[in-house]
Design a protein that fits this description.
Elements lengths: L2 H13 L23 H4 L13 H4 L10 E9 L5 E10 L4 E20 L5 E22 L12 E14 L3 E17 L13 E17 L8 E11 L6 E12 L3 E14 L2 E10 L9 E12 L2 E12 L3 E11 L1
Antiparallel strand pairs: 1-2, 1-14, 2-3, 3-4, 4-5, 5-6, 6-7, 7-8, 8-9, 9-10, 10-11, 11-12, 12-13, 13-14
């Protein structure tokens, strides 16, 4: 028997499947708690105000408004042993008003052999194989609020919502199903816009923004609630730091989650432009004091190549787990 695998599965039961031990008021559907995205995780999950691509469907659906064309994103999480977590995203601009996003996720927690105990609590041989999985289907839409109410404030305000249908199963005796929604907004402020005639190549404090999101508002059909949270986020962006053709974005998120209590995340992203290439470096961390599985600093990066009207990108992030070692995420994206 692989001892490390048994230890991992036990931890996953407490982290991803706490419904086994849950009482009244407990949260379930734990695919809603697992770290999501790849660019967002590169900056420690501090992405709810800065999200500007299809990953916004996970962090703040208001950010979907920024999706200008069509985008496909696939993310593969490489966990220990035979545990894997795959996500596929699709986003498309519908009209000048907003954009649609769809995501499908599947978490397979692998298999271990049940360890039986006798009446005295001692080892009594091996039992059945136990396996578990989670799934999620999300459909979101982000739009300009100015299309509903126009004034000087709403012209820079985006709003959005996501409907999430998810479920989980553990062994032969447990399964669950839930429906939940995310509702959010993002407000961006242009501080100094880059001008090709007057300040091209100069250091600029370019823009800033903040966002608000209510996540996982819903319930599961076994009576437990989903892991609801309220989060606030902010970011600021600088152009041409130390040299030209780059931008630096700093972001921070704070919130409260019914399952994890206080949420504290922060990160920084450096992007450098070289002709048709865009190189990115990211780092950040989840500093939530009651985080159960992972803590510390994340590191990531990516390369985007634009060829004509199509852009291809590959991104990577390393998440440092406090108990289980490291988690590697790889993402492939096409914008067309």
């Amino acid at each position: 028997m692989n001892i490390k695998k048994i230890y991992l599965f036990i931890l996953l039961q407490f982290a991803f499947f706490p419904f086994i031990y849950a009482g009244a008021g407990s949260t379930s559907i734990d695919v809603l708690k697992i770290p999501v995205g790849i660019k967002g995780q590169g900056v420690g999950g501090a992405y709810l105000a800065a999200c500007n691509d299809i990953e916004a469907i996970d962090y703040n659906p208001a950010g979907l408004k920024v999706v200008e064309k069509k985008q496909i994103l696939f993310i593969h999480d490489i966990y220990l042993q035979d545990i894997f977590y795959d996500s596929i995203y699709y986003g498309q601009n519908i009209n000048e008003t907003g954009a649609l996003g769809i995501v499908l996720k599947y978490l397979n927690s692998g298999r271990v052999i049940e360890q039986k105990e006798n009446l005295y609590g001692f080892y009594d041989g091996e039992g059945k194989d136990i396996s578990g999985f989670n799934y999620l289907l999300g459909i979101g839409y982000g739009m300009d609020f100015e299309k509903i109410v126009y004034n000087e404030f709403t012209k820079d305000l985006n709003i959005g919502g996501t409907l999430k249908i998810s479920g989980e199963s553990l062994g032969e005796n447990y399964s669950n199903f839930s429906m939940a929604i995310d509702i959010g907004c993002i407000y961006d402020v242009i501080i100094n816009e880059e001008n090709f005639l007057t300040n091209r190549g100069e250091f600029l404090w370019n823009k800033a923004g903040f966002g608000i999101v209510f996540k996982n508002l819903g319930t599961s059909f076994n009576g437990n609630i989903t892991p609801m949270s309220f989060e606030l986020g902010a970011y600021t962006q600088f152009l041409n730091c130390f040299t030209t053709d780059n931008k630096v974005r700093i972001s921070a998120d704070f919130g409260y989650n019914l399952a994890e209590s206080l949420l504290i995340k922060g990160g920084i992203e450096y992007i450098h432009f070289i002709n048709n290439l865009r190189l990115s470096l990211r780092t950040g961390g989840n500093f939530s004091p009651e985080e159960r599985l992972y803590s510390g600093i994340n590191f990531g990066g990516g390369i985007l190549l634009k060829t004509g009207e199509i852009s291809y990108s590959i991104d990577y992030v390393l998440l440092l787990f406090s108990e289980l070692g490291n988690n590697h995420k790889i993402g492939f994206s096409v914008i067309f």
